[in-house]
Amino acid sequence: MAYVITQRCCKDASCISECPVDCIRPTPDQAEYATAEILHIDPATCIDCGSCVPPCPVDAIFSEDDLIAPLRRYADINADYYDKHPLQPDITSPLPAVRRVPATGRKLRVAIVGAGPAASYAVEALLRRADAEIDVIEKLPTPGGLVRAGVAPDHPDTKRIIEVFDSTHTAAGVQRYFNVTVGEHISQAELLDHHHAVIYAVGTATDHRTGVPGEELPGSRSATEFVAWYNGHPDCADNEYDLTGDRAVIIGNGNVALDVARILTADPADLAITDISPPALEALRNSMIREVVLLGRRTPVHAAYTSTEFLALAYLPNVDVVIDESALVLDPISRSLLDDPTAAFKYALTAEYAATPTGSGSRRIEFRYLLSPVAYYGHGQVERVKFVHNEIRLVDGAHVAEPTGRTGSIETSLVLRSVGYRAQPIRDLPFDTRRAVVPNEQGRVIDSNRQPLRGLYVTGWVKRGAQGVIGTNRFDAEETVEHLVTDFLAGALAPPAGNRTAFAELLATRRPQYIDETGWHAIDSAERAAGQANGCPRVKFTDTGTILDIAAHKEVDYPATT
Ligand code: SF4
Question: What is the rounded CA–CA span in Å between residue 248 and residue 84?
Fold first, then answer.
């Protein structure tokens, strides 16, 4: 028997250093780490000690004997990885050696903009290196970033990583200020007046557009906003969606598209025991949507979803996963990808879905491939998506979907585009509009002459683009912070004029409604209490006024979900 890493692995690699026999791969310094969907335990080497279980922040590791049906296949998935990547006993630490700031001398002061995973891992990386003073500034009234507002409510274990992040922030030297917008309530120059450095970890605020005619029609919406809506993001909580039709079409087939498809086809009774936003739950209770069709521009072996999320669809209650067997016919260019184990597994899963009889579920999720939208039509509301069939061409070594001229269409009253997140320009920082990132060299922000801008750093999606999973941010932050500390020790950072007290006083003047750690704990407690009363983990408050009242310890009415 062995332990097994399963679907929700966040790849933050906390487990690796705990394993006494060093049998968890890939490690972050291996080339395979970048493309691996999850980490794996070598069953031939595992001694079944369980040491890797407690440090996993998302409870993704189980004894083989305890695997429930949807996860049993992961025993084979872990073992298969080692068939193709024999264990090399050459790795001892998932994190690089760090350069520590001596306890004597100047205290390093850093402002971090953002309070999601990238910011939290930056805090952790700083605390590993220095007895630093860290001020975290977040524009939303609550922390968590995309863990709170992006991870689907039916993935509660993934959301538990917020508790790990919260414990990091209770360290001495860390102060968090929520409901404060940098560039509005406080400027970058003022942050640098009070800190040696500023790390921007703001993530990506919007989505890519498809750019096809009719995209602006009512009923054609962003999947990013839809996700924010059902997760209770204050900016989107009041959104309204027309769910009166029986079919939704999603443009794209990444994990966000799969999240949206699951939520649209889920039984509302199952969603009621999650932390889904109450208005979204109510809307979904009244939804008439019975079918979700995902249009992918390339083949099943190119699909953007991870095989773990794709596999999990097979266990959705009362939902048919529908794939026509014609999707299995690959052109020679695409077929060459089958040498890649991840692509080969996606293909194998596609074949399983195509061979599985359908018709038993009351709802269905259908995958169609090699299709791109070319126009949306409708009278005052989207009614039909016209698409073109693609073929795969090899262009400069890349597999490119090119239109064939053969078209078709599908009727729908709701189109959600899910073709990737995109960062927005940040005030007082350069911006690469093509890549939608802040130009940087390993985290140091650079100008148009590729010279570092003193005291300015980035981490997370705004540094590398919208790719990777939660744990990817850990190693991204390590790189950025290592350079920051190097610059500090070299005397390359300007000493701040103001100290921590002066910064707190300035913020209190500029943004009296800021929420501190005490306020967040009041919000957290109130949401959990409301959840307990409603049989779910938490009920999110979405109205900023209500959140401010709770943070100020005032009595409020709790929204009900049942
Ligand atoms: Fe390593 Fe023990 Fe986890 Fe097996 S159970 S992977 S030996 S830490």
Answer: 39
Q: Residue 203 and residue 236: Cα distance in Å, rounded?
A: 17
165 φ, ψ to 5°?
Answer: -60, -40
Question: Ligand 1, from 52, 64, 65, 91: best to mutate by most atoms within 8 Å of Cβ?
Answer: 52
Tokens of 302: 């190119």
pTM for this prediction:
0.89
Instruction: For residue 18, give the ligand 1 atom closest to its CA.
Output: 8
β-strands 247-251, 291-295 pairing: parallel
Report CA(472)–ligand 1 centroid distance (Å): 22
Nearest by Cα to 40 from 70, 65, 66, 73: 73
Among protein residues, the one with the nearest Cα to ligand 1's atom 8 is 19
* Spatial distance between the Cα atoms of 43 and 60, rounded to a whole number of angstroms: 16
CA of 32 to the centre of ligand 1 (A): 20
Helices (H), 286-418: 307-312, 332-335, 341-355
Site to probe by mutation for ligand 1, drawn from 4, 9, 21 as the one with most ligand atoms within 8 Å of Cβ, is 21
Are 164 and 55 spatial neighbours (Cβ–Cβ below 8 Å)?
A: no
Q: What are the angstrom distances between the C-alpha of 320 and each of 327, 362, 364, 522?
A: 17, 8, 5, 42
Q: How far apart are CA 294 and CA 377, in angstroms?
A: 18
Which is the closest atom of ligand 1 to the Cα of 15?
8
Task: Give the pocket of ligand 1 (CB within 6 Å).
Answer: 3, 18-19, 21, 23-24, 41, 46-52
Interval 503-517: pLDDT, tens? 999 999 999 999 999
Ligand 1 atom having least distance to the Cα of 41: 6
What is the C-alpha to C-alpha distance for residues 99 and 423, in angstroms, rounded to an integer? 31
Residue 344's alpha-carbon distances to 300, 351, 415, 519, in angstroms, are: 10, 11, 30, 49
CB atoms under 10 Å from CB of 361, counted, come to 16
Report pLDDT digits (tens) over 175-186: 999 999 999 999
Helix, strand, coil percentages in the chain from 3-state DSSP, rounded to 5: 35, 20, 45
Taking the C-alpha atoms of residue 496 and residue 196, their distance in angstroms, rounded to an integer, is: 6
Residue range 382-400, pLDDT digits in tens: 999 999 999 999 999 999 9
Q: Which of 17, 46, 48 to mutate to test the pocket of ligand 1 (most atoms within 8 A of CB)?
A: 46
Residue located nearest, by CA, to atom 3 of ligand 1: 52
CA distance 490 to 487: 5
End-to-end CA distance of the chain: 42
What is the chain's Cα-based Rg? 24
Cα separation of 341 and 79, whole Å?
13
The closest residue, in CA terms, to atom 4 on ligand 1 is: 46
* Amino acid letter, 417: R
